């Protein structure tokens, strides 16, 4: 990524398939939207799911910044 003013939006999309806790953190840039679908396997553990989803979003953001993420 070049040095430029960037506006980054991180959003979680809940996919809620058959009661599973599945989310897709998305990072939206002018060049496109990077997303990563994930399931924590933590069931109804709300706090655990939120922590796991946030950690995965940060990993995705790091990969986007490094240029390792795929659109």
Automatic annotation (TrEMBL):
Domain of life from the UniProt record: Eukaryota
Protein name, entry field: Uncharacterized protein
Organism: Hyphodiscus hymeniophilus
């Amino acid at each position: 990524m070049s040095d430029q003013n960037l506006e980054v939006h991180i959003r979680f999309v809940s996919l809620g398939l058959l009661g599973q806790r599945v989310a897709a953190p998305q990072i939206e840039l002018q060049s496109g939207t990077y997303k990563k679908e994930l399931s924590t396997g933590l069931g109804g553990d709300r706090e655990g799911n939120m922590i796991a989803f946030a950690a995965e979003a940060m990993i995705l953001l790091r990969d986007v910044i490094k240029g390792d993420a795929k659109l």
